[in-house]
Amino acid sequence: MNIYDFTGLMQSIHESLSESLSPTMVTVVEFTLVALAFMTFFTLLGLILVYAERKVAAFFQLRLGPMRVGKWGLAQTIADAIKLIFKEPLITKGADKFLFNLAPFIVILSTIMALGALPFAKGLHALDFDIGILYVAAVSSLGVIGILIAGWSSDNKYSLIGAMRSGAQVVSYELSVGLSLLTIVVLTGTLQFSEIIESQRAGWWIFRGHIPAFIAFVIFIIAGTAETNRGPFDLAEAESELTAGFHTEYSGIKFSFFFLAEFVNMFIIAGIGATVFFGGWMPFHIGNWSGFNQVMDLIPGIFWFFGKVSFLIFLMMWFKWTFPRLRIDQLLTLEWKYLLPINLVNLILMAFIVLMGWHF
Amino acid sequence: MNSILAYIKNIYHGVSTLLKGMAITGHYIVRPKEIITQQYPENRATLKMFDKFRGEVILTHDENNEHRCTGCSACEVACPNGTIEIISKREMIDGKPKKVIDKFVYHLSMCTFCNLCILSCPTDAIIMSQDFEHAVFDRSELTKVLNKPDSKLMEGVR
User: Fold this and answer.
1) Nearest chain A CA: its distance from B35 CA (Å)
2) In chain B, which end has fewer C-beta atoms inside a 10 angstrom radius, N or C?
């Protein structure tokens, strides 16, 4: 287990910095390094996910997807990014300029803040709060403020309708995300990500938590998809009804901020799901089969994390390219009449199971 | 009690239909051989259009440079937008004057590929070809004479 531990590496970086710099400077340099690492990761993740999305969508629809730029179209997203950077950032005449320019940054900010609390591997964890889940749930839904501001300041009816829909959607589905995570918190007894992972050393919660954990996972993945404004819940964009919804008036780099934030939000939801239900970077362990467990330990934790996240992202892409978009009333019916009551009953069931000690 | 039963039934129905949809797309993604996209300029040598594809009207000629067009103008009459013009002439065959085609003029630029001329032809002289690369550098190249020079009517077609 120890060979894949990043704690030592981080410690040695910290010590080598401390030798030559004052404590304040060390903090500043470390902050900068972490910020740079996350910026780079954010950009790379966006590029990879956009390519993956286009390829997966194409294969679901019996198409080939991008094939022209580079081998198998691998350089397509890089070309797209360069095009977006060089495009003119247009602003509508009646727009509130300050809010119009602020909105993409709020969306990006909430995304990066949530990304910072995800545990990528043992020791590779920027912020390990003792209220990690609460923090991520809180900041990841801050992005909707950016969407609302974007819709309001654009001076465009499509933007405004899209933003309002997005607001109603996130306010509703935040409940289900929170409650389904709470179902697992009942099992773990902690909100800290590192401890949640540590508690799954003997097996992932989705297997150990019986049926309630599985129901919680299904609800989480539905509500999580809705929270990221992705299809089939992409009412905020709804190309066929609202041209492009809240980002109709955005162009160039500001549009790409919204675009990237959507994909990275998907990564965050998948990351939380992987951490809470599938054990994060914890390898796949079966009870007392020590031989099997040792073989699994040989695979580095970071691969386990990204493997699980990729699986969940694939699942969300599967949803998007299979199901038709919901109407706004269907969306709210699904949340308030189905997901929420099931979730509450499920939570009580899980509490009962934990009380009786029936889980593994 | 009935309403609770209906509620659970509703959930079951919803989930099962969603899974059915996912099964269909899942079926597709694991079978990349079924992909229908054609990588056109690269596969130009092997690309085969489907049988009923309507490329352009051609007059079929056999190896003796003989066609089956009697010059009856049925296709010209059938054409809704004047794409076909039959210019005929009188020729002495076996000592008798007989009407034969001089030029079968086809304006590809006006053709809507409706297939009515092919259906109206009593001698099956014209067909739709599979060729779809119609781009030319001058508009006049789109006006074509379909009968080859010195071609004549096939024996026995009347």
Assistant:
1) 4
2) N
